[in-house]
# Entry
Amino acid sequence: MTPEGELIKIDTSVAHSARVYDYLLGGKDNFAADREAGDQMIEALPNVVSGSRMNRAFLARAVRYLVADCGIRQFLDIGTGIPAAGNTHEVAQAIAPQTRVVYVDNDPIVLAHARALLIGTPEGLVDYLHADLRDPGEILSAAAGTLDFSQPIALMMLLVLHMIPDADGPHAIVGRLLSALPPGSYLALSHPPSDILPDDVAEMQQRLNKRLGPGQSMTARSRDEVARFFRGLGLVPPGLVQVHQWRPDGRLDPDAPASVWCAVGHKTT
Ligand SMILES: C[S@@+](CC[C@H](N)C(=O)[O-])C[C@H]1O[C@@H](n2cnc3c(N)ncnc32)[C@H](O)[C@@H]1O
# Structure
């Protein structure tokens, strides 16, 4: 049931990106079709498992940096995923309990977990929107019920834009979202690469796309294509790097392979 009491329909016969990712992270919210797709991905690109874990570690480091070093107190986290260890609101509110977080995802199974996500600190606010990234206008107007768009906001788009094909204009979508944020805001983003281990990633993409349900497909992108998401922003050092290379904090092996691009950008004007 949804928080509004509607019945959620989940097709478990085909793979779904949120559940495949849950499987790669060692979670339990996945079905045979998701595990089969995950195993096919691992066979093509063995470091997809360490890459997924390093992506979660990047999320935690980026949120800590944004809250502790940049003073950010508002997050719009699109492509939330099934709750895993160290969700955005948990990391942020552990440092600044008054932090507000709006989560957005279009997967019914993530919606089913919304109640678990909605538990934040009494001083802060956590909200969940069941919405599609391809409709940024709807996301912005609904998020305005919780977030103050006159104050800086960190837009989190970790491992989600690869699920938006070029035909759906992913760069224009990010541009539209960023245009609604005031100066002082940030964009944290991670994305599978088409130019690191390109043959293995292409094979992984092909195998996953064969198994994903209707309306879903992944598109890996090159470093230049990922850099274009940050057009008009200043990149926080060390810039656009692989997830394990972004401000490593000693908890990770900095040489462990992780084929995922990431960066944090600052909107100054
Ligand atoms: C790989 S998970 C990433 C989860 C989390 N951001 C992280 O990096 O750990 C991708 C998530 O994006 C969601 N997603 C994919 N396409 C979407 C869309 N068009 N609109 C909203 N969410 C989407 C999926 O349902 C899934 O939960």
